[in-house]
Structures are given as C-alpha cells and as structure tokens.
Write a structure and sequence with these properties.
It comes from Adineta ricciae. With 332 residues, this protein is mostly helical. Helix content is 84%, strand content 1%. It has 13 helices and two strands; from the N terminus they run ααααααααββααααα.
Length: 332
C-alpha cells in the first residue's frame, strides 16, 4: 500500500514538473524575449546610452537574451515531447552549458558593476565619481565577458550527457567535476554577485540619503524662486534617480530568484553520495525545475521592472511607440 502511495505521489510530482517545463517555461520565454528585445531598442537610444549605468544595462540585456535563447528552447522541447536533446546528445549538453553559464555569469557581474557605478556616481567625493564613465564601462564589459568565457571553458571537459547517477542527465561526469562546478557556479554566479549587488545598492541608498539631507535647507529657497521651471540640473538628477530605482529593483529580483538555486546546488553537491528513494529523487527533480525557472524569471523580466520603475526609460519607450505609430500612419 505504501509503495502504491509513493508511486502515485511520484507520478503527480513528475506531472507537475512536466507542466512547469511546458507552460511556465514557454511563458517566460515569450515575455522574456519580447522584453529583452525592447530593452535593446530603448536602452540603445542616444538619450540614454550616454550614461555608463545604461551601458551596463544594455550589455546585460543582450546577455539575458542569450540566456533565454540558449537555455529555454531545450526545456520547452522537453515539456512538449518529453525528451530534452541536451540530455542525450553530448555536444548539445556541452555547448548549452558552456554558453548558458558564461552568459549568466557575465549578466550577473554586469549588474554588479552597474550597482558599483551607481555608488560611484552618487558619491560626494570627486575621486570616486570619476569611476562612473562610459569608457570604464566598455572596458569592464570586455573584461567580464572574456573572463566568464575562459572560466567556463572547462565545461567542455567536465560535462557529459546520459548520466544516470546525477541530479540531471546533462551534468558533471566525475565527482570532482560536480563538486567544482556546483560550488563554482553557486559562488561566482549567484552568491558573490548577489552579496556585492546588495552591498553597493545599500551604499547607494546611503549616499542618496546623505545628499538629500545636505540639500534640504536649499529646497525651500529654490522653490520660492521658481515653481514651474525645470533646470537641466534637476532633469539630470531625476534621470539619475530613475536609473537607481531601476537598478535596485532588478537587484532585488535577481537575488530573490537566484538564491534558492544556489542553496539547492549546495544541497545537491553535498548529498551526491547519499542513497535516495525514488520519491525523494522526484521531489528534488521538481525543485530543480522550479529553481531553474526562477533564475530565468530574473533574467527575462528586466524590461518590465524598467518600465514600472524607470521614469526616463518609460518616457523613451512611449516616445518610440508614438514615433512608430506616426510612421505607420504616414505609410498608409
């Protein structure tokens, strides 16, 4: 009776995992691709891309698009026909994980550097504000991109398909590979970037509060001089505040969506040698699918965060939409 009950539970859990791959993954893929493409269009506008933080956002959006295109199609295929080609084909497995982890590491560290840029630009010290520049942003992007691809090149030698003793079939083929890759991914792509994002985000908030307290005595005097005019300085300050809000909300989303996977990755690493029942394996497979879906949400929903919390981003998007509608009317 107990075996029948476990078998029933396993079937339910496996069915839920399959539904996650089929519907949630497809939802994330469609909305994520559309959002990432719109991000590239809006953030590449001259009015925005002169800001180094926007340069980081633009590059991160490009790599997030790569994450969705590399990581999700195989999961969608698995949900539709029940077979993931990366689980059975060795080269699909190696190339998918190489590009997926390289893109994901690059994207995470670009947001870290964006948070660092916000901290520098909001600092009252001139020396630290000098680190907020487009030239430094371009160099940082090239360095992050190169290091991520070099570090994950070992995946071609470590990963293999058709494994039966691993949490997923496309995984590290030896014990040492699994330990190294699980810990390396959890720390370099999730834990350390999340901690640095939160640190620089908190420091940025502190800088902003210090600046606000410093200018409060002058606010009343300025408002008595002019109630309606907006100086170029106030517009720049509004733009900077908008970018900071966009970054802080994205940092929170990425942290919330990434931490569960990192924790479960550590759990899988240190329970590799534990004998597990079929029910426990089914539960772990369900958690793996759910955690992977959460990480893709963090990568695919940036556009919607920017639209809701970024005034300058939203205004640029609306202006582009109006321009597109005007051009369509002219053609008709």
């Amino acid at each position: 009776m107990s075996n029948l009950t476990d078998e029933y539970r396993i079937n339910i859990i496996n069915n839920v995992s399959s539904q996650i791959n089929r519907y949630l993954t497809l939802f994330i893929f469609l909305f994520g691709i559309i959002g990432s493409l719109l991000n590239l269009v809006v953030l590449s506008q001259p009015v925005l891309r002169g800001n180094p933080c926007v340069v980081y956002f633009l590059a991160s959006s490009a790599f997030s698009l790569g994450i969705l295109l590399v990581g999700l199609p195989s999961r969608i295929i698995s949900g539709l026909i029940g077979t993931d080609p990366t689980n059975t084909n060795s080269w699909f497995c190696k190339f998918r994980l190489f590009f997926l982890y390289s893109f994901r590491t690059t994207s995470a560290w670009l947001i870290v550097f964006a948070a660092f840029d916000r901290w520098c630009s909001s600092n009252r010290k001139v020396y630290q504000r000098r680190f907020s520049s487009c030239q430094i942003a371009y160099r940082s992007i090239l360095i992050i991109y190169s290091l991520s691809f070099i570090l994950w090149f070992e995946g071609f030698f470590c990963y293999e398909a058709n494994l039966t003793t691993a949490p997923v079939k496309c995984y590290g083929k030896t014990y040492n590979c699994r330990i190294f890759n699980d810990i390396f991914y959890s720390t370099s792509t999730v834990a350390i970037p999340s901690i640095l994002m939160l640190i620089f985000g908190s420091l940025t908030i502190r800088n902003i509060n210090q600046i606000r307290r410093a200018i409060e005595p002058f606010v009343a005097r300025i408002s008595t001089i002019s109630h309606t005019s907006r100086t170029p300085r106030s517009l720049v300050r509004r733009s900077e505040s908008s970018l900071t809000r966009m970054l802080l909300f994205q940092v929170c989303l990425l942290t919330v969506c990434s931490i569960p996977q990192a924790m479960h990755q550590f759990y899988l690493t240190f329970t590799i040698d534990v004998q597990k029942s079929p029910l426990r394996l089914a539960i772990e497979n369900f958690i793996v699918n759910l955690n992977f879906s959460l990480t893709y949400i963090g990568n695919g929903m940036a556009f919607y965060i920017y639209t809701l919390n970024g005034t300058v981003f939203r205004q640029t998007l609306i202006r582009l939409i109006k321009l597109a509608v005007r051009q369509l009317k002219c053609r008709q």
